[in-house]
Design brief:
Layout lengths: L1 E8 L3 H12 L15 E8 L2 E8 L5 H9 L3 E8 L4 H10 L3 E7 L2 E6 L1 H4 L3 E7 L28 E11 L2 H12 L3 E5 L2 E5 L5 E6 L7 E9 L2 H10 L4 E2 L6 E5 L2 E7 L2
Parallel strand pairs: 1-3, 4-7, 8-11, 12-15
Antiparallel strand pairs: 1-4, 2-3, 5-6, 6-7, 8-12, 9-10, 10-11, 13-14, 14-15
Helix pairs in contact: 1-6, 3-5
């Protein structure tokens, strides 16, 4: 089970995409026409063998637009996992009472989006592809990134995405739900924190919401090739930023904290 892609929802695609590409030194690899089904357009951006995506509404009354209304603007929206057989996650979800909001089945593909209320603040998708028998291969097949995404990988600043932090009023409950769905054990850090390790060495963290904080994606972790340059670019754009004792530093964008760590 691998955390493969994080999606953001933005009111306007171009400025959000420009900021993300500039600060992290990345390139857009694909624009998926399939998201038009949801009234959206998007940018899929490779980060090594992982992906960031930005979706933006192209019409009124979309699920992403309503989610941003609740969150007060651009924000983290979705976490997509890859495994060898996603049908197992569907069966577990049925037993857990987790609702599916979208299912996709075609030759070689199985994907399900699970309800953000049931998952504690973000849509979670679990996907599998016959073309990717080894999901932990760094550049494994990923249908949603199009046929030529590898031509757009740029690791000169950002090496890869390594972690996700969720905020929730009851982190124990949220960690238990994710653990059961993903079939990965959760470990208590303290009474307000729980961690799950993914199959590719990544980390999922579940922490208690702060004052006036809504449930959802709070932070992402990145292994950097040149984190200093990324922080410099964040500062040039006027983004909140700071240093970190256990890493290079951080900056905030779309209500998500980007934690920058040293490579290796």
């Amino acid at each position: 089970m691998r955390l493969r892609q994080i999606a953001f929802a933005a009111r306007d695609l171009a400025p959000a995409e420009d900021a993300l590409l500039d600060v992290l030194g990345l390139e857009t690899g694909y624009r998926d026409p399939g998201v038009g089904e949801f009234g959206l357009h998007n940018a899929v951006i490779p980060v090594g063998g992982n992906f960031l995506e930005i979706v933006a509404p192209t019409r009124d009354d979309t699920a992403a637009g309503r989610y941003m209304d609740r969150r007060g603007g651009d924000c983290g929206y979705m976490a997509i996992f890859q495994c060898t057989d996603a049908s197992g996650a569907r069966a577990r979800a049925d037993k857990l009472g987790i609702r599916a909001v979208w299912r996709h089945d075609e030759t070689g593909t199985c994907a399900t989006h699970f309800h953000p209320v049931d998952m504690g603040g973000a849509i979670v998708s679990v996907d599998s592809f016959e073309a990717a028998p080894d999901v932990n291969e760094e550049y494994a097949y990923w249908k949603w990134a199009g046929p030529a995404w590898k031509d757009h990988v740029d690791t000169s600043l950002t090496r890869r995405m390594t972690g996700l932090e969720m905020a929730h009023p009851d982190p124990a409950r949220q960690a238990s739900t994710w653990s059961a769905l993903l079939e990965l054990p959760a470990r208590a850090v303290d009474e307000d924190g729980f961690d799950i390790e993914t199959g590719d060495g990544g980390q999922l963290r579940f922490r208690r919401t702060g004052d006036n904080e809504q449930p959802g994606i709070r932070a992402l972790d990145f292994e950097m090739t040149d984190g200093g340059e990324a922080l410099k670019r964040a500062g040039a754009r006027g983004l909140p930023r700071g240093s970190a004792g256990d890493g290079i530093g951080w900056f905030d964008l779309m209500q998500v904290r980007f934690n920058l760590k040293h490579a290796g």
